[in-house]
Specification:
This protein is of the alpha/beta class. The chain has eleven helices and nine strands. A hairpin with a 4-residue loop joins strand 4 and strand 5 (192-195). The radius of gyration is 18 Å and the shape is globular.
Length: 305
């Protein structure tokens, strides 16, 4: 049994001991060629994302996604095409979006704040965060704000072609006169915006645990009811920053690398998020069964406390 399966089994055991959890979801997206193309999203949600008119460079507040670079790295195609990876992310996003919709009636706090993290570096968290954001942006009635919350190592911004120290999250927290719209960048996909990590700063942990950070997250969560905020954070076992954001997030997505992430690492990471009530697991870098080589297949499971 893999680390992710064992972690999910432990979550399921906790659920059984505390009574059945309503809405429990267990979905797996296999890396096989026989995936059912129509099993997830309705066709209305598979439209080609609308490009904004007159896209401008990032220093103007607008930016174009580096499509050639992202395509070379194997990220989800932003043209709405049906390929293996796009199908897998449709499977991954569906329970996340369902949880947001249920929370509207249950009054769950910040359910649309989705934190993406991993145990250590190299497991694919930024790859997963960008893919998830692009996939959700394909929805007809959703918008996405992708935040580079890995302040000390802003890899999402680097992947999207942003220059280092471009104004963003840290600047918002340090300057009370700065508005969110002053630093959020609109992509050439209508439903996708990006908030860079911001200028480098000392005492990052204290900054992210400040009252200003809590107020910012609450404002982002409540101001735009149709918006999903995807936080790409630091690996949770390497810094204390990710566990701080976990306390503010309504959902957590753990990216676990097949055959390299150990059961002990998963167990330690779960302790760092203070028994968060909604944690999802993405199994990354699984082997293709037929060719026995590594690919970007995903297993996905959600557990409730």
């Amino acid at each position: 049994m893999s680390a992710i399966e064992q972690a999910f089994a432990r979550k399921s055991m906790q659920n059984r001991d505390s009574g059945p959890a309503e809405g429990s979801i267990r979905q797996r997206a296999q890396y096989d060629d026989d995936i059912a193309a129509d099993r997830m999203a309705p066709r209305d949600s598979l439209m080609t994302p609308e490009r904004t008119a007159n896209s401008r460079p990032s220093n103007d507040g607008y930016f174009e996604l580096p499509y050639d670079k992202l395509d070379a790295e194997g990220l989800v195609a932003a043209a709405g095409t049906r390929n293996q990876l796009s199908e897998e992310y449709r499977a991954i996003k569906r329970p996340i979006l369902s949880a947001i919709d249920v929370a509207k009636f249950d009054g769950i706090r910040n359910s649309n704040i989705v934190m993406v993290t991993s145990c250590v570096s190299g497991e694919g968290k930024t790859f997963s965060a960008i893919n998830l954001a692009i996939s959700i942006a394909m929805e007809r009635d959703r918008s996405v704000l992708l935040i580079d919350g890995d302040v000390t190592n802003p890899s999402a911004g680097e992947r999207l072609g942003f220059r280092p120290k471009q104004r963003g999250l840290t600047d918002l927290l340090l300057n009370p006169n700065l508005r969110v719209e002053d630093v959020v960048c609109q992509s050439d996909i209508k439903n996708l915006k990006f908030l860079p990590a911001g200028s480098s700063t000392h005492h990052v942990t204290e900054l992210l645990s400040s009252r200003a950070m809590g107020e910012l997250v609450d404002n982002l969560s409540s101001s735009y009811k149709d918006r999903v905020i995807v936080f790409d954070t630091a690996p949770i076992l390497l810094t204390s920053e990710a566990s701080i954001i976990a306390d503010l997030a309504g959902q957590i997505v753990f990216v676990v690398a097949a055959e390299s992430t150990t059961q002990g690492m998963v167990s330690d990471a779960l302790k760092m998020v203070n028994n968060h009530s909604r944690v999802g697991y993405v199994l990354n870098k699984t082997r293709k069964k037929q060719s026995n080589i590594y690919g970007y297949g995903y297993g996905y499971g959600y557990g409730h406390k």
